[in-house]
Amino acid sequence: MRAKSTLLALGALSLSASLFACESMLGFDEFTYSTGTAGAAGASQAGAAGAAGQAAGAGGVATAGAAGDGGGAGAGAAGEAGAAGQAGAGGADDCPPGVVTGEDGREQRRVREPGVGCFSIDTQEVSRGAYQKFLDAQPPFNLSLQSTACQSNLELKPDAACVAGSKTTGDLQQNPVVCVDWCDAAAYCKWAGKRLCKGSHADFAEAGKSEWYAACSNEGVNVYPYGSKSKPSACNTGCTTSPCPTDPVGSRPDCVSARGVADLSGNVAEWVDECETSAGLEDLCRARGGSFKDSDGDAACDLSDAPKRGTRDASRGFRCCDD
Ligand SMILES: [Ca+2]
Ligand SMILES: [Ca+2]
After folding, report:
1. In this predicted model, what pLDDT tens digit does every residue of 250-300 receive, in sequence order?
2. Over the stretch 110-135, which tens digit does the pLDDT of each residue have?
C-alpha cells in the first residue's frame, strides 16, 4: 500500500533553508490520535517545562509557532526570506514558517501537511551528544512529568549493555542515540520543548494521520523520502555485517526528504507517538523508517515496526516534532 510517485512541484521548497507547504485539506482538529500521552499533551506540558527552566534554552522551538513569522529567531536569515515568500504565496497565515535550532543543535523544519496540519519536525535524528546534554542537565528532568504510560520509567540512560553492542562511524557524539525506550525518547523531547511525532497506530501509513509519514513521504507522494524508487546508496541501509554501524546524523546528502529532513529512511528506526494503547511499558508503539539492518528497498516511508514501549535496541533511536 504505497503511494504513487507523482512528485509535486516542491523542488523550490527543498532548496530553501526554511520550508513551508500550505495546502491543507483538513483541519488539524480532524486529526485523531491513538493515544493521549506525551504527544497529545505536548504543547501545554512542554510550555510548562520551559517556564520552569527545564528546557534550559533547548525549547526555542516554541517561538516558531508565534504568529507574525518571528523571523525564525535569527536562525538562517537567507532561508527566512524565502519562507516568508512561501507563506504569502500559499495564503495560509495560520501556519507561520520557520527554521528553529534548539540548544541540542536539532534544527526543525516547520511544515504543513494535508490532514495533519501545521507541525515542525527535527531535520535529524537525535544524536548521542544531544541526548547526553539532556542527561547532564541541571536541574534534571522531572520524571513525574512523564505521561501515565511512562510513570514506571525510572531510568533515562540508554541501556549500557545494548550500547556496548552498538557500532558507530565518524564522530561518536554525532551518531544517533540508540538503546533508549519510548519513554526516554518522549522525555527528551519534552525537556527540549518538543514532543514525539504524533499519529495513529493503525493508520501509520496514511499521510493525513501520521506526522512522521507525512514528512517522509512528502504528503503521501513518495515511497522513499528522496523519491519514488529505491536508491541503494542514498541512506544507511542494507548493512549485512554484524554489528552494523550507524552514521553520524544527517551525513548522507542524498538521504533527505523533499523538505530537507534527513535519515527518515534507515540509519536508526525512530520511535513515534503512535501507540496502540496507553497502559504502560508493554504497549506496542511504532518505530518508523527502518534502520541500517533493513534492505534498501524495504526501508521505505511505510516501513514500521511495533516494539513494546519499554524495549530498547541498538538499531532504534528517535527524533522530535513540535506543533
Ligand atoms: Ca528508560
Ligand atoms: Ca532514521
Report:
1. 999 999 998 889 999 999 999 999 999 999 999 999 999 999 999 999 999
2. 666 656 678 889 999 999 999 999 99
Contacts of residue 242, defined as CB under 8 A and 6 or more positions apart, other chains included, come to none
Identify the nearest ligand to the CA of 309 by its number.
1
Q: Can you give the pTM of this predicted structure?
A: 0.72
Q: Distance from the CA of 73 to the center of ligand 2, in angstroms?
A: 27
**Distance between CA atoms of residues 295 and 311, nearest Å:** 23
Q: Is 271 helix (H, G, I), strand (E, B) or coil?
A: strand
Distance 154 CA to ligand 1 centre (A): 6
Task: Inform me whether the pLDDT recorded for 228 exceeds 60.
Answer: yes
| Cα(187)–Cα(198) distance, integer angstroms | 15
Closest-approaching ligand to the CA atom of 269 = 2
Using the mean position of ligand 2's atoms as its centre, give its distance from the Cα of residue 223 in Å.
Answer: 15
| Alpha-helical segments (H) within the chain | 11-15, 38-51, 77-90, 128-136, 160-164, 182-191, 211-216
CATH 3.90.1580.10 applies to domain 99-322:
yes
